[in-house]
Write a structure and sequence with these properties.
The chain has 275 residues and is an alpha+beta fold. It folds into 2 domains: 9-150, Fructose-1,6-Bisphosphatase, Chain A, domain 1; 163-274, D-Maltodextrin-Binding Protein, domain 2 (3-Layer(aba) Sandwich), CATH 3.40.190. Helix content is 34%, strand content 24%. It has 7 helices and 14 strands. The chain has helices at residues 9-28, 52-68, 100-105, 168-175, 189-197, 212-224, 254-274; strands at 41-43, 49-51, 73-76, 90-98, 111-118, 121-129, 134-139, 144-146, 149-150, 163-165, 181-183, 203-206, 227-231, 249-253. The strands form 3 sheets. A 7-stranded mixed β-sheet has the order 3-4-5-6-7-8-9, with helices on both faces. Strands 11-10-12-14-13 form a 5-stranded mixed β-sheet, sandwiched between helices. A hairpin with a 5-residue loop joins strand 1 (41-43) and strand 2. The longest helix is centred in the C-terminal third of the chain and has 21 residues, at 254-274. It is globular.
Length: 275
């Protein structure tokens, strides 16, 4: 039996977008372009930073999104995980500020990210970057938009002139296998994917340990723009698992996917030979 469609999908996307715009305004109140944030900051148990803006946005979105779709469970970077989500059809996946370190230092490369999963698959995504004046939106099957205009990935099919963003150690290692044009790291993983989606860059590398909330919204935006994100060996990205953590990932426009995965395989082969 087929799954019933997402309830009032276009209206829901509009409401989620508006919620993200309001959430971005909350975060922007304490953001200082080019300077240290005015927000109080501290470290979480694992050592990663958090600010009062992260918590404020998380609280705001949980209240707002729970009203929009009360039956949906919740998964967020700033909320204690609840295993109830594993048994629910719908799950909100939220990163209140993706790129917290960028936000704290005054860099514009941070974003409010919201995805809705339906049986583990992203079906709605919003990535809102207030300091970059960019709002990316999508519904599954409806294409991807930036500030209301349709976007698409580049059609580049070879690595030689590809603009690739990612952590410097990963870029350095890959450059020893295949030449390309490295791009400065984009601290927000969601924006790294969104900028592949809109053609600003051609591909991106993501180191191991990214979480569902870093990826789900932007993954759908990338797919709907004609791109693809996968594990480093081409495996499908799976969401809403008991432990929502991912290994090495690569992302690009569809035409560049196979050349990029081939280069990653050659890199793995080279590294294994050195062991």
């Amino acid at each position: 039996m087929s799954t019933p469609p997402l309830p009032i999908a276009p209206d829901l996307l509009r409401a989620v977008r508006e919620s993200c715009l309001e959430a971005g305004a909350i975060a922007s109140d304490l953001f200082r372009p080019g300077a240290k944030t005015a927000a109080r900051t501290w470290s979480k148990s694992g050592g990663s930073p958090v600010t009062e803006a992260d918590i404020g946005v998380d609280t705001f979105l949980r209240i707002r999104l729970s009203v929009l779709l009360p039956e949906a469970a919740w998964l967020s970077e700033e909320t204690v995980d609840d295993a109830l989500r594993l048994s629910r059809r719908f799950v909100w996946v939220v990163d209140p500020i993706d790129g917290t370190r960028a936000y704290m230092s005054g860099s514009p490369d941070w974003a409010v990210c919201v995805a809705l999963l339906d049986e583990g698959e992203p079906v709605l995504g919003v990535v809102h970057a207030p300091a970059s004046a960019a709002t990316y939106t999508t519904l599954r099957g409806g294409g991807a938009q930036k500030n209301g205009a349709a976007i698409a990935t580049s059609r580049l099919g070879s690595l030689g002139t590809a603009r690739i963003a990612g952590p410097k150690p990963m870029l350095d290692a890959l450059s020893r296998i295949e030449p390309f044009e490295p791009v400065d790291k984009i601290p927000s993983l969601a924006l790294r994917l969104a900028r592949i989606a809109d053609g600003s860059i051609d591909a991106g590398l993501i180191s191991a340990d990214a979480r569902d909330w870093d990826l789900a919204a932007a993954d759908l935006i990338l797919r709907e723009a004609g791109g693809r994100m996968s594990g480093g060996a081409g495996e499908t990205v799976v969401y809403n698992r008991a432990t929502p953590v991912h290994g090495v990932l690569v992302a690009s426009g569809e035409d560049l996917s196979e050349p990029l995965l081939s280069a990653m395989q050659r890199l793995r082969d080279t590294q294994s030979q050195r062991l």
